[in-house]
Amino acid sequence: MSDAVKHECGVALLRLRRPAAHYEQAHGARAYGFQKTALMLEKQHNRGQDGAGLACLHLRPSQGRPCYDLEKSVAPLPLADLVSRCGRRLAEDPAAFRGELFLGHLRYATFGRHDLAACHPFVRDSAFLDRLLLLAGNFNLTDTRDLADALAASGHHLPSLADGAVILQCLTHALEREHARPEGFRGLAHVLREAASRFDGAFVLCGALGDGTAFALRDAHGIRPAFWWEGDEAVAVASERPAIQAAFDVPTGAVRELPPGKALIIRPDGTAALEDCLDPAPRRACVFERIYFSRANDAEIHAERKRLGHALAPQIVRALGGDLDRLFLSYIPNSAQVCFHGLLETLLGIAATKGRTVRFGQVAVKDAKFRTFIADEAARNDLAMHVYDVTYGLVRADDTLVVLDDSIVRGNTMRNAILPILDRLGPRRIIVASSAPPIRYPDCYGIDMATLDELVAFNALEDVLREEKAEGLLLAAYDEARRQLTLPPGRQANVLRTLYDRVPTDRLVGAIARRLRPQSLRAELRVIFQSVADLRRCCPNHAGDWYFTGDYPTPGGNRVANRALVNHMEHRHERAY
Length: 577
Known about the structure:
Elements: E1 10-16, H1 20-27, H2 32-42, E2 51-57, E3 68-73, H3 78-92, E4 101-107, E5 122-124, E6 133-141, H4 144-153, H5 163-179, H6 188-196, E7 201-209, E8 214-218, E9 227-230, E10 234-238, H7 241-248, E11 256-257, E12 262-266, E13 272-276, H8 288-293, H9 299-319, E14 327-331, H10 337-352, E15 359-360, E16 364-366, H11 377-384, E17 388-390, E18 400-405, H12 412-423, E19 429-434, H13 456-467, H14 471-484, H15 496-501, H16 505-516, E20 524-529, H17 532-538, H18 546-549, H19 555-569
Helix pairs in contact: 2-7, 4-5, 5-6, 9-10, 13-16, 14-19
């Protein structure tokens, strides 16, 4: 992706099933659990740029010392710093980070503080082991304030309204209520159900009680990803399947997806079972995971991204007028690479039927990122465009250069860095192809796209309405959005959809191309987007496409869309939830 987009976090949960001596004898590792958890985190480090944390729970703690070890880091390279911190403690203390249960987290903040207090795992301490709670997760809620108000009404004071603090308090409140039942404690699944059934948003929650009970819970729509594996020596949970495969050298089929609405409960004796927790809901797993976020070394994601490339081929051939001889095909590094392979395979097949071939190569190369405090805007912009470099001598003057990107969000990098430097190669025409449809709607489930001002598709929508002298439609939508916000979330409709329905897709795409075009660009420019229909065919099990369709999986999504429109019209550049 050419635009930098913050996204969801990564989690890793590991429960060892054998005594420590077994791992030292079988694997030669005195810190087996720590090493495997660190490896799972490393294989997900794309999910953590702002912070990292690791907790280790001891199931039979000695009196006089804590039952858990905890380290966190918000250093510039937080995961590397975290591993170094834990390593030092391992060297100094023979018991540190050598317990039976590990909970790791990588933080990629979409909102909130960048300090240690905002890093997971969060802890609710208690002298009673069955009431001590460690929590880490991948979550964004739309109703945090509503939950906080409900807690306040029951006598709680929350020092923070961040999602993590509110979720921790909801869980501990439900835990205390369950322990207070005259009939007795029914189990952790009942606690999770009481707390999480009120959450509106996306979440994978992982945690442990001090008595050794661990859990992983996924939201009922399955918006955020989670996978688990069970072996003779351990049970593991992670946000991405290949992280578990790499750590334990197991095949794809051995790692199972955590079912939406289910809780994986790991008991103190190490046995694990899935338990019903949340009421069933339509599956709306996030499709952006498949397009961009998760690593493409997952076998299923790799195949889907190739299909996304295959699906773009007909549009590109039409845009070329069938002239493949003057095509040079490339991509924007790095996440579009697998999709590029799928597109290339299809175009090579088409060319072969005509006795032709397709020229291709990597013309855009991501260079070192410039960081500068130069005050002169022109000089600063000139440096910024050199975040990317190009390979000279591949593109001819009469070529159409087709560059594939996985998606176009804001368009700033495309306009200010990529297109100007590609233009130096002297192509007659540049076609930018996006493997995703236009991103029209804000997100509230884990991706930093909560304002309309930064979406180039919405900017283009306003351009079309102005061209048609139809600004009144925008004002009418603003009034309706304000009215909708007075209704309960479950009764609100997404007003933004009425505006997009007013503009044909080809008009919107043309306006996006004009927005992306640098003023000094010499080449002709065209932009091609994947259709929603083709996206759904390529990723059939991931129907969470609200970015493109406005069809949000939870009621809070429509409220966020309406709030984003009101904020835009009132020039309030703030988060919509």
